[in-house]
Design goal:
Elements: E1 3-7, H1 13-20, E2 25-29, H2 37-43, E3 49-52, H3 60-64, E4 71-74, H4 84-89, E5 93-96, H5 102-118, H6 120-128, E6 147-151, H7 155-166, E7 170-174, H8 180-185, E8 189-190, H9 194-200, E9 203-206, H10 220-225, E10 230-234, H11 243-252, E11 255-260, E12 279-281, H12 290-308
Parallel strand pairs: 1-2, 1-3, 3-4, 4-5, 6-7, 6-9, 7-8, 9-10, 10-11, 11-12
Helix pairs in contact: 1-12, 5-7
The chain binds D-malate.
Amino acid sequence: EKFKILITEHIAEPGIELLRKQPDVELTYDPELFRNFERILEIIPEYDALITRSGTPVTEELLERRKKLKVVGRAGVGVDNIDLEAASRRGILVVNAPTGNTLAATEHTMGMMISAARLIPYAHKSLKEERKWDRKKFMGVELAGKTLGIIGFGRIGSRVGIRAKAFDMKVIAYDPYIKREKAERLGVELVDDLEELLRRSDIITVHTPLTDETRNMITKREIEKMKDGVILLNIARGGIINERDLYEALVSGKVRAAAVDVFTKEPATDNILLDAPNIIVTPHIGANTFESQTNVAVIIANQVLSALRGEEVEFA
Ligand code: MLT
């Protein structure tokens, strides 16, 4: 009997192809299915494996319906859409592709940082859509000489740090889970407490997973401790920076500008942040490069195959 694999979101072709050519696999690729949770609940009992991105909520309710589900594969890094505890209680493996889209997220962060510092999308809109030639209005700040505070100095945070240094920024980082030497080797100063980072940084970017520990890590209270005119970036997960508090800080001008790719509830077409001034937003496209999506699709396909065949895999 073949392994039945269900994919509920868009995954790059090389990963699909890899699965299709396996003689022991029967693949259902339905990239829009994540929009129809009820349907997923209905059909999940037939499947041995489920592959998702961040749009499919892999809840206890869904896992409970499984009959033979052995593995959930997350084509990406963040597993916050999966109830890990509920999966583990049922003996269902959860695997991800943590290295595949590191560079895409890093580069999107750099793009968002420059966009926020110079309000590039606002200038673009003014010229292209409003046909205005307004050179006075768009005054930005330079990155060189400024202090970048990185919260979460893992795969993505550390690469953002390396790139920021090439822009002549001073880089400091807060991450209780990494060794001081790792930061020092890269010429980055690791600070012992979050408060110090908040106080010293001109630009702050978060690169942590979303967990109980990081949800609402940045609220009104933390924003008050920051420099006036700070720039904030969230290319990690919605909710690490409290959305309402960020909105208010943008309105008051305490935060000069922000750039946000991720939201507490996605699709985020009516999020409060869309009404804030000086905010650059993108629809969770941090991982969207051809290179990354190919990497992630191939990695997750291999991870899921290994898990199904009882070979060794690394858990998420
Ligand atoms: C990830 O966690 O890998 C990203 O958010 C990318 C995605 O969900 O597509």
